[in-house]
Design a protein that fits this description.
alpha+beta, 4 helices, about 40% helix, 6-stranded antiparallel β-sheet, Jelly Rolls, 6 strands
């Protein structure tokens, strides 16, 4: 959650983290499923996760995540409550820190100044993901043109 809370006062950071739930999750657990709604976002504190996407009729692993990667999962679900873009499965028992959308909204209502910073950070993170996706699409399009 560190990247989401950059620039937030210690007091507001503590208030936000108090709304987060820390959970130990056993190996093999599906934390979220592609296409299904997720209640909010989470960070990986300990353990290893497999990130998967459907391609045609099969599901394939697109990445493996560890705490050092600093990934915040389900940011889009936190923002709009829509369906998850990936499936995330616990490879090695893990500890996650989760913030539900309703708790995040309540924090924003109670701490408007800190909320503005959290929302700026959230926007930056989502913009970064969008830029990476655009670059990958452009690369795939170029490869497709070369093949055809």
């Amino acid at each position: 959650m560190d990247r989401l809370l950059e620039g937030v006062s210690a007091k507001a950071r503590d208030a936000f983290l108090a709304r987060c739930k820390e959970e130990k999750v056993p190996k093999g657990t599906v934390l979220k499923k592609e296409g299904q709604s997720a209640p909010g976002a989470f960070s990986l504190e300990k353990g290893t996760l497999s990130i998967r996407r459907r391609s045609g009729d099969e599901e394939m692993e697109v990445a493996v995540a560890t705490p050092k990667d600093g990934i915040l999962f389900s940011l889009t679900c936190l923002v709009d409550g829509g369906p998850s873009l990936t499936t995330v499965v616990v490879v090695e028992e893990c500890t996650i820190r989760r913030i539900d959308r309703a708790d995040c909204d309540a924090f924003c209502a109670e701490e408007p100044e800190a909320a503005a910073e959290v929302l700026r950070n959230l926007s930056r993170l989502l913009a970064g993901h969008l830029r990476k996706s655009d670059a990958k699409i452009a690369e795939m399009y170029k490869t497709l043109e070369e093949v055809l």
